[in-house]
Amino acid sequence: MNRHHREIPGTPIFDGAAAAKGYALNRMCFSFNGADNRAAFLADEDAYCAKFGLSPEQRDAVRRRDVLAMIASGGNIYYLAKLAGIFGLGVQDIGAQQTGMSVAAFKAKLVAAGA
Amino acid sequence: MARIVGGLATSHIPSIGVAIAKGLQQEPYWRPFFDGFPPARAWLERQKPDLAVVIYNDHGLNFFLDKLPTFAVGAAAEYRHADEGWGLPISRPFAGDTDFSWHVIENLVADEFDVTTCQEMLVDHAFTIPMSLFWPGGGAWPVRTLPIAVNTVQHPLPSPERCFKLGQALGRAIRSYDSDEKVVVIGTGGLSHQLDGPRAGFINKEFDLMCLGALPHEPELLTDYSTLDLVELAGAQGVELINWLAMRGALGADVYEIHRNYHIPISNTATGLMVLESA
Predict the structure, then answer these.
(1) Which residues of chain B carry a pLDDT beneath 50?
(2) Predicted pLDDT of residue A33
(3) Hey, CA dihedral for B131, B73, B237, A77, is it positive or negative?
């Protein structure tokens, strides 16, 4: 293991392999900078995902709104945040989901980190 | 020649922009963060810089993974913000300075930093929020700007040492600009935070406080870390500390620390603020 690759527990490293694997999903999420595209996704999610050629694994993760599964299929958190925003979810909501906590408990954990 | 008056660093969490738009600065949740800024604004009022170089990271507004520069330098007459997808109010535009941009670009490339040059460049919250924090109140911005975007999206990221050296080259470039104008260098992002993975919500107060302590007078303590060291110690997105290191590099060896603030949390993030004056 060299200094460019090492395991950091609980921490995805968005590297070239992830970026290649996640390209279609991230490209779709990048499109959500545009309001028309967000509306098109909400109007017909299947058609919108098909347009970007998501892999079956990516399509399933999006269908289930499962952030860890999106990351496992190559999603990058900065792009995924734009998808979450469509549903009115912020980084504390998706933090809670990824850690299996309630949003209130996740926020309390952050406050406790300052003590 | 142009003169660097000093450097500023601040966190750039998107929800700060929402709080500003809603006027929440004195709410109990927000007050410990916003109350850090009056001394920074008073210092700016004394220094009255003409130009601001803002070293930040784009989060998928201007750049996508199709073409992702490690270091990108603005060369536009104007920089605009735009819809980032999750409801942040859109900032008014910022004036650029193409003569200054091309001077910096020419000198960085001569100094072996082969940057990407951008005649069109949207700037995201990591640029707009620090500007709003340092110069609140609306109206015309009192500085012309030069954005420098650093890749923190896709590994390999530039190392802390490389970013510090970029800052040193930037400092040399600014100080060789044939002008009597004053320049402030701003680094944005951090401090510790992590948005993704089972470790989401990770904050490391001890490490942050060490960084704030080292940055003014012992930045070499920070440039010895690898990028992945920073990911481990400061969180996956806490790696934005490299933008602070680039700012620090531009200031030269000796600085005076004017002010700092540290508060946990805003959103998922441990927030930091620092004001350094060139000696």
Answers:
(1) none
(2) 98
(3) positive
In chain B, the residue whose alpha carbon lies closest to the alpha carbon of A11 is B197
Cβ contact, residue pair B205, A11, below 8 Å: no
What is the complex's ipTM, to 2 decimals?
Answer: 0.96
Alpha carbons B151 and B174: distance in angstroms, whole number: 22
Q: Test A13 with B205 for CB contact under 8 angstroms.
A: no
Give dist(CA B222, CA B241) in Å, integer.
9
Write down the pLDDT at residue A4: 67
CA–CA distance, A95 with A93 (Å, rounded to integer): 5
Q: Which of A4, A77, A87, A111 to substitute to test the interface with B, most B CBs within 10 Å?
A: A77
Q: What is the CATH number of domain A16-88?
A: 1.10.700.10
pLDDT at B267: 96
Tell me whether residue B193 is one of the annotated catalytic residues: yes
Question: What is the pLDDT averaged over residues A71-81?
Answer: 98
CATH of domain B3-278: 3.40.830.10
